[in-house]
Amino acid sequence: MSETVTIDAPPAAPKPPTPFYRDLAVQVLAGVALGVLVGNYAPSVGRHTQFLGDIFIHLIQMVVGLIIFCTVTHGIASVRDLGKVGRIAVRALVYFEVITTAALIIGLVVVNVLHPGSGVHIDLSHNGGAGTAPAKSEGFDDFLVGLVPTSAVQAFAQGDILQVLVFSVLFACGLASLGERSAPVLELVGTVQKTLFWIIGKVMRIAPLAAFGAIGYTVSKYGLGTLTSLGKLIGVFYLIVLLFFLLVLWPVSRYAGVSLLKVLRYFRAELLLVLGTSSSESVFPQLTSKLERLGVEQSVVGLVLPTAYSFNHDGTCLYFASVSVFLAQATGTDLGWQAQIGLLLILLLTSKGGAGVSGSAIAVLALTLSSTHKIPVDSIALVLGIHSILSAAFVFTNIAGNCVATLVVGKWENAIDRVRLHKELDAGFTTAA
């Protein structure tokens, strides 16, 4: 009887490591550094580079509403368990409210202790105090009405994330109620989602140029020297951000069973990108893809991450709290602890539903100041010159906070492949073959 001899196939040759210069994070960092150099040493050139960042953000905005719709719809309708959807939503919203409240408290305490605005004496009484065009103050009932779009098409056209989210959840619940009859539509939504991610993949190739253009314009317009007078506020704000990472995100990450440093390393390309563009929308598709790759169920990612973009603005809350009190100190506005508690309550409302686009925080800050009826809205002009520097830090914090939030809710729902999670985090993100 003949004997079958099995010849083992030779082991596959290991894939050569990707050159460091092809890493998107390295390319974005290089773009930021080049933008600083051009903006500082060739400002006449830097003033004409903003269009690179604007084009990039417009390309992202072009599809982000549809991506949120597809992600939420596919995530919820695939579950077909509306009880689970409601449980995830409630848990996520409770988490968001607790964490953003902690952020506001940290911001208020530190800025009161260090008094960054005490050395600035600005008299705006000749401007009528509240400014020439104060923002309209909205009550809670107006906020609730604003959640519901008068037209779904209008919500997508205006890029209102909250309204898009409300429509997407309703559409997904209706689709889930159809059972097996929803399969063709669900397949179509999944195909559209993959198509949009392909577009984003191509757009991301110009991310280093976008970072270069945005930073180059900022430095050329305001210069490095003009930041000296407001350097204390910048230092205090970055200290506040650091404290938030140490006192809130680090222990919360430990509770979720992950290392915060490994999470930041895994999302390093997206975090570096928002440093240049100050736009959290620009990385939403990549965050969705990476969180699912970490082993978080699509149903959790599809509901928690888009909701976090509207309700979990950790960094923006730090910004609102610190800058509001700074402007009160700079203008000599008497803002006692009772008034600051009222400010905190106002911020808990006005900080929700931001668009996540660079510059939107200024509009919400104006709304917040006008709601206090004390801090002059015109005083916002004091921080316009350093807003880009501050926004880089708070958008960075928003992204990190949203990633941690998704992991925490995933833990509560037992919706994470723990083996895959730790394997991916230990290895660090590498481009899929």
UniProtKB/TrEMBL annotation:
**Pfam families named in the record:** SDF (PF00375)
Q: How does it sit in the membrane?
A: Multi-pass membrane protein
List, alphabetically, the InterPro entries matched. Answer: Na-dicarboxylate_symporter, Na:dicarbo_symporter_sf
Report the subcellular localization.
Cell membrane
Which coarse location class applies to the principal site listed for this UniProt protein? membrane
Annotated Gene Ontology cellular component terms = plasma membrane
Could you mention a single GO BP entry for this protein? Answer: L-aspartate transmembrane transport
- From the Swiss-Prot or TrEMBL record, give the protein name: Putative transporter
What taxonomic ancestry is recorded? Bacteria, Bacillati, Actinomycetota, Actinomycetes, Kitasatosporales
Annotated gene? revO
